[in-house]
Amino acid sequence: MSDLGFQKDLFVMPFDHRGSFQEKMFGIKGRAPNAAETQEIASYKKIIYDGFKKAVAAGVPKDKAGILVDEQFGAEILRDAKANGFMVACPAEKSGQNEFDFEYGEEFGSHINKFKPTFVKVLVRYNTEDDATGNKRQAARLKRLSDYCKKEKIKFMFELLVPATSMQLAKFNGDTARYDKEARPALMIAAMKELQDTGIEADVWKLEGIETEADSRKVAAQARVGGRNNVGVIVLGRGENAEKVKHWLSTAANVPGLIGFAVGRTIFWEPLKAFREGKISREQAEDQVCKNYKGFCDLWIAARQ
Is 0.90 topped by the overall pTM? Predict the structure, then answer.
């Protein structure tokens, strides 16, 4: 595990979306984007990055700010961010898969080393009461990546999603909000423990928002169990509305071990959509991204105090 002692707060702008981004923003379904489309998608990601940089220039602490962007559409952004001394994270997972696998197969190491990011990030769907065989396959791949990050002294950011099984959801009559509040925190903790017991060591857990401070404290305790005192938890936005995200961040901000957030679509989706529809200029889209991101950073800092 890497030492995260330097990092009390971590404000991540994630825009590593690939399959969902090209399909929902650009209508490209069932195929890879061509060269012109790839360039256009990259230009939209540049709007997000430029908004992020404006927010840092406007007062977001640079040592707490970071971006999460993919190589496919964000290679130029990654190089610029590294050159400008920002924390950067790159995803290692294949986009749009229910089961974790490497985006670049056996070449994953060379792609990580191309950018030498601060963090390697994975998105994993893992429910201990679901497919045990699939979970074992995922865990074996994730252990390889965890070991690689440790060897290369790159921090490991683990985004854990715990989708409900049909049986779990049936207990709440299909009410996902009740599942999220009443069942998901304990299932998250069970998943974290199972993964830790397999030898997978995250430096930062990137987790779905938790409704109560009591459950937040339990999750933070699991992240730091067994002497993992430098491990932190950040809250992801899950594309929820701003009010819901504000509630999650306000709940998390005063829990030891919860060190920040990774909020993406809630910040950038509407500005990009408005720009694409010709309703606002590129500069206005950047300014809205800046304002939205800085707003969450300011909220976290105020809640901490």
Answer: yes
